[in-house]
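pipeline/complex-builder :: batch 7 item 3
reading input block
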Amino acid sequence: MSIDPRTGPAPAPTGPLSTIDYSERIPNNVNLAEDRRLQRALEGWQPKFLDWWKTLGPALPTKDVYLRTAIAVGRDGWAHFDHVPMEEYRWGIFLAERDPDRVVNFGKHKGAPAWQEVPGEHRADLLRLIVIQGDTEPASVEQQRILGETAPSIYDLRNLFQVNVEEGRHLWAMVYLLHAYFGREGREEAEQLLKRNSGDVDAPRILGAFNEETTDWLQFFMFTYFTDRDGKYQLGTLKESAFDPLARTCEFMLKEEAHHMFVGTTGVQRTVERTAELMKEHGTADILPYGGIPLAVIQKYLNFQYSVSLDLFGSEQSTNAGNYYTSGVKGRWQETRRKDDHVLLDDTREMRLVEDGRIVTKTVPMLSALNLDLRDEYVADCANGVRRWNQALEDAGLDERLTLPHEGFNRKVGVYAGHHVSPDGEVLDEAAWQASEGEWLPTAEDRQAVAALMVPEYEYGKFAGWIAPPQTGINDQPVEFDYVHLAEEGLV
Amino acid sequence: MTLTTTEGAAVDFDAAPDRYKHWRLDLDGEIATVNLLVDEAGGLVPGYQLKMNSYDLGVDIELYDIVQRLRFEHPEVRSVVMTGGLERMFCAGANIRMLAQSSHAWKVNFCKFTNETRNGIEDATQNSGQTWIAALNGTAAGGGYELALACDQIVLVDDGSSTVSLPEVPLLGVLPGTGGLTRVVDKRHVRKDRADLFATKSEGYRGATAVEWGLIDETVPRARFDEVVRGRAQAAAANSRRPRQATGVVLTPLARTEDRDSISYSHVTARIDRDARRVDITVQAPAERPPADAAAVLALGVDYWPLAVTRQLDDLILRLRTNEHLIGTWVLRTAGDSGTVLAYDEQLAELADDWFVNEVRHYFKRTLKRLDVSSRSLIAVIEPGSCFAGLLLELALAADRQYMLAGVYEDVDPDAEPATIVVAASNDGAYPMGNGLSRLESRFWGHGDGLAAVRAELGKPLDAEAADRFGLVTVALDDIDFADELRIVLEERASLSPDALTGMEANHRFVGPETIETKIFGRLTAWQNWIFIRPNASGPDGALRRFGTGQRGDYDLNRV
């Protein structure tokens, strides 16, 4: 692999690692060269993936992009940065190191050795979980396909592409599992992952949020903050799986996912910073005429993305989730750090729901409410980002604050589905909801107003007027670094 | 866990005339007399006395042996009289104390085996030229009358007190589970209201009414009883097609080696994987081409490959079914040369009119039927070196699923010949199932075009692609997928509810028309097995448990 004179070599790995073999057509650390079955399956799938990438991947033509590529899976030094033509990105298969002593940490198989093969008993469940997870990865690439045309900076454009290629790699990770462990059925499912497309009426993506249009960059940042964070939590539960290859795959995916969180957190933060700056400068919240996104609109975008992301956790009470847990297929977030028996047969918890027009609490068996358990973890994590953003408002001397809406707000799945709940947690009737919906969720006008601000800024180091520049660049490069070289036609 | 008798020994199906405890076989030229005289203390399991000529599995294992030996060892026997050795009581049926103390699984397996033996008696009458005649020298109650129902004709002594009866419903709160209800209406054509009266009247009916209703054929005073029975036996013998001058084939003891996890015979091996709850059964093709003609076939006798392999399979099925309840999946493989198997297949068809070959064919048919009604998941695995052709293809067709390797195991034997299967004429009717259809017809039930397409391929080796295209295998996968797919399928199977699997498989296996056999193994058995586990029968106050205590069953009166 060439070493870019401007960036130097990747840092020397210090943690335990298994080197990724880049001499292969498909980079991997799973000994692909010696696995005839996997080789055949993946080599058959690879051209289909590239076709998909060319057709439904980023639309903006580029020469190359300053991208991070995984070179080893150890704690440090797993990434290498270089300018790479995107279609030549080395998508590959990387699993975290295997711990030969790993055991099942929860459920009825607790204490037994982790599974290195799919047990027939759980094949259907595991296949379904992997397909659902796998379906989300290419979906977001499809959703974000045309965003490059309105990038607020070359720096942001690079981050978008980095997210896109990594979502592509996550698709590879899931496809690896399907190919390696699920035989012909797995191969068929892997093909279907490329055949379903976001927003396609005939063959939509499995989960609703992944068929929503990504209209603009504010929504992209909200998506990477809230919806990718859902992905992080789902991966966190699969990382606990008794099925070791899935656990190791997800462990490594989580490392990559952290970057997406970073893009979302800082993207919203920089938008809020610029908004605060304009509010102060002009002494008004209505900063649209000055080229900024009003805080109220940011709040509406937040409300929307947060609520549809909560829906991704599924019903608060779920027999499937309980079965997955008991059978060892899917654990809880940070399972091994929990201080309980990891079997949960006798545990209960509180759950809120709407009853007779009021939100009430009832006690339910813990095993039945594991989706809620995971969602609670997620909600707490989401609140951290909001605190950061509010710090920017406070630093600017403003009194306005962003808030997470109530968990029942705008929900289509679970106990709140079919009810109207205001962002403050007030149960509303249909008329009251209709009257205020436009104050809480982005209206067509709001989206148009934001879209009008989305003009591309492709000059190195320059930023669109609605967003503040970042503090630092990527990989210690300056902010004005040439992160993306656009193709000639891209510049036109 | 191996289900065993209470002494801890597995049930053995090896019986021989010199060791019969409960039956006496009298041979008199063309007429054989089978005499039931149960050794009261000779129960298979301790805890009950076989009074009043009542029977348990041990009694029935001997009966099965008799039926088989009459067919193979005695070509000269053209009719068989079944009678009892006790005064005034022909047979009181299955022993109630035995039933009451048995586990559910034991009862179910016991009923299945006894039903198969009754069907075998009917098969002898229909297909062997050995007409069975029940000479009821006393009362035939419950399973005793059901034994008689399996015979072609029933004669009851007219002594003013002997009756035929099915007292299970009124006395025991269960059904006559050995085909009684079915045969009364379906075989003997007794009107349903009379059948209803009969099956609820515990003492049953004496000769005159029994004859009038069709429950029996004739009732005769004691003085003329033997003469009438003999007359019927002679008449039946006169109509038989069995050869006048022929030598029988002695069913010598099976050579079998066993250890904890395997059972092996010369042509059949079974290896049990207890952790996986699975047994891998391999049936070996013959090494030699078939002998030249009928005389040479007969000279080989029990060593004639089709008979040898059938006996071994039959014994294996019975042992696994009775002694290995936890082994829920049977994986069926074959090994050897398809050409040789097909040569035997052709010979069995060519010599079908020969009495011995006829017996072999029908025995193979009955053994396949045993497989059909076995409550185990049957998975056929078709790999290079296998010989699923003609009669051995029946094993694959009997299976719930067929997995076929396309190509060869590249890493094991890249030069092997890829597996093929061959559908032969014998698959199209020589070995019908209980529903009267061939397994091929059953497979293509409702798909006449699919059946026609396969019929056009008779005799041609079909590779995995073709077998898949013609719908003869469930999946054809190459070696890259095969082993893992099979492993997962078998694990998945082992994880499902055994009860649901038994029910599901029994439903899928028998398409199309109902016959007496399918009704017995379906309707009668399924209801009986449900009734067996209901408290009204087997609860502490149930009729079966209370029988003989002086108290009647205390029922939950809700109709379900």
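note: Strands of chain A lie at 62-70, 79-84, 348-355, 358-365, 420-421, 427-428, 484-486.
queue -> next item
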